[in-house]
Write a structure and sequence with these properties.
It is built from 12 helices and 2 strands. It is an all-alpha fold and 284 residues long. The protein has one domain. A two-stranded antiparallel ribbon has the order 1-2.
Length: 284
């Protein structure tokens, strides 16, 4: 009996393949420039990282308009159907990092720092309310602007096209793996895992799968890629709190990218998968 395999000759399948090939090609070329100029110590690395975040957006917009000939709004470019998903996107980092720090403490992997001066340094003479304002705004501006460059491509264009071919579970896993491998050259150069760069490629791909499930959940439930962009922006804004409070000399034992951090994101991913299975049993 022949299994039901997706048709790889239709436009949407080719749209997936073209998107992945072109996005990886452009980004890996940019990674090569960084590598050939000394790696992450290259003075223009930050500018390249910002530019890379918009590559998925640019490629997906071009393919949407000129190859698939669809409207840009067809991939979730709208305000969504409920504010609760924006709140979930904003609060997710506190839940995930908090759980990670709790697991870190229970496992005894290092020192738990609770000194608020770590996030509200007083030596600069800056009032605490200024820090609070900056921290509260950062996920929205500028972080979600930069994150939108990725999220329209990954959770908008790619995820929606994959959902035309696969179940929700397979789609989220595939998107997470592709998204993780897109980061591979940077991780191999020591980004996030300078102690374990090669192992870091595997661990970071697990991380992108787990948090990608949450971003995918946001997109599917809210029907808006903007919620995923806010969630991505919030993670980028607050993920460093895990490193600040869960202090260890071994990156494999820390938060958010070590064992307790990965375990926390995995546990939450299971919760969101359960909700998707409950909400869309026929498509899961």
């Amino acid at each position: 009996m022949t299994p039901n395999l997706p048709n790889l000759n239709d436009n949407s399948s080719k749209g997936i393949i073209y998107f992945v090939i072109i996005t990886f090609f452009i980004t890996y070329l940019m990674d090569a420039v960084i590598f050939l100029n000394g790696g992450l110590t290259y003075q223009n690395t930050f500018a390249f990282l910002i530019a890379m975040m918009f590559v998925p957006l640019i490629v997906s917009v071009i393919l949407t308009k000129f190859y698939l000939k669809r409207k840009l709004s067809s991939f979730g470019l709208n305000k969504g159907n409920s504010i609760k998903y924006y709140l979930a996107a904003y609060l997710y980092p506190f839940l995930s990092i908090g759980l990670g720090v709790l697991l870190f403490t229970i496992m005894g992997f290092g020192i738990l720092r609770t000194d608020l001066d770590l996030i509200f340094p007083t030596q600069y003479g800056i009032p605490i309310y200024i820090y609070l304002i900056n921290y509260s705004i950062a996920p929205i501006f500028p972080n979600s602007i930069f994150a939108f460059g990725e999220e329209y491509g990954w959770r908008g264009y790619l995820q929606d096209l994959l959902l035309e071919k696969f179940s929700i579970l397979k789609t989220l896993l595939l998107t997470g793996v592709i998204w993780g491998l897109w980061h591979a050259p940077l991780i191999a150069m020591g980004y996030n895992y300078n102690q374990y760069p090669l192992l870091g490629v595997f661990l970071f791909t697990l991380w992108t799968i787990f948090i990608g499930i949450f971003f995918g959940w946001l997109k599917i439930k809210s029907k808006s890629v903007l919620t995923a962009a806010l969630g991505h922006g919030a993670i980028n804004a607050y993920v460093g709190f895990g490193i600040i409070f869960a202090q260890t000399n071994n990156q494999l034992l820390g938060v958010p990218f070590g064992i307790p951090g990965l375990l926390a994101f995995f546990i939450l991913a299971l919760v969101f998968l359960w909700d998707l299975k409950r909400s869309y049993p026929k498509d899961f």
